[in-house]
Amino acid sequence: MRSDDWRLTDDLDDFLARAGAFLRSRSAPHTVALTVTEALRTRGPHTYGEGTPEFGVLERDGTARAALLRTPPHRLHLTALTGEDADALAARLAGLGRPLPGVQSDRDTAAAFAGAWHRRTGARATLHQRQRLYRLGALTAPRPVPPGRPRVAREADREQLVTWYREFCDAVGERHLQRPGEWADAHIARGGVTFWETPDGTPAAMACLSPEVAGQVRVAGVYTPPRLRGRGYAGAVTAEVSRAALEGGAAEVLLFTDLANPTSNGLYRRIGYRPVADFAVYDFSEPRGAGA
User: Fold this and answer.
1) What is the C-alpha to C-alpha distance for residues 277 and 131, in angstroms, rounded to an integer?
2) Which of 119-147 are b and which e, b meaning 16 or more Cβ less than 10 Å from the residue's Cβ?
3) Helical axes 180-190 vs 158-171, angle rounded to 10°
């Protein structure tokens, strides 16, 4: 395996022409790459930040075997790699002198790349989060259903969405992946956020759906304010958006969980979600000698 087997580019169209079929061939494990590139395609290259997005395709005999993407300032995202491939990629990227804040991928790939990055640059890798990807099987609404009803968020809810998006990012320990106002506007425009509201019309929880790409839709941004937790609102709104995704024609409905949170993992299993694969997120320190 040679590091120059990777074709690196900042051209999204070129990346999708080379890697699109590969990403669609396994839409569940590639859900992040599919949804991120769809957002960049439809909403512009600065959807996730001011930096220029970076892409890469591992090609052998004219066929895509793996892919990478990064939307600065966020972490590198990788599809599955062997240990040898991960080491070769780390060598290529280290040789370019581009700092990386971290990596996210399936558990084994993330660990292999984090180790290779440390060997190549001296940067320390710290495990930030262990995740599990779930796929919906038979949907089972949680019982008892809390008082209230689901409602799609609308323009009048913009301030609420901005606030909850910020609180959600803080709760999961992430910098805002998108600008809160732009995130809210995009989701309102396509009806992508559903509230569970109490009988008096007060929003009590939210859940979001990604746009459908390659037959898959992902549930994300499930959030209940701390004062309202433990009342069944998150389960009710997650079941509602899952049902809506199925009725909208999605072949697969997916979601990620933090494995450190047994409550959410148990809840999603009760609703009908089944494990697909484990993922990991690592943070990197500055490379050895940086800033010297």
Assistant:
1) 9
2) ebbebebeebbebbbbbbeeeebbeeebe
3) 120
Phi, psi of 119 (to 5 degrees): -65, -35
Q: Which residue shows structure tokens 């971290």?
A: 102
The Cα–Cα gap between 235 and 101 comes to 33
- CA-based angle 279:221:182, to the nearest 5? 115
What does the angle CA 120 – CA 122 – CA 126 come to, to the nearest 5 degrees? 110
**pLDDT (tens digit, 9 = 90+) per residue, 21-72?**
999 999 999 999 999 999 999 999 999 888 999 999 999 988 999 999 999 9
CA-CA-CA-CA torsion sign (87, 53, 253, 228) = positive
pLDDT digits (tens, 9 = 90+) for 75-110: 999 999 999 999 999 999 999 998 899 999 999 999
* Phi-psi sector, 221: left (phi>0), alpha (psi -120 to 50), beta: left
pTM above threshold 0.90: yes
**Banded pLDDT at 292 (limits 50, 70, 90):** very low
d(Cα 108, Cα 256) in Å, to the nearest integer?
A: 17
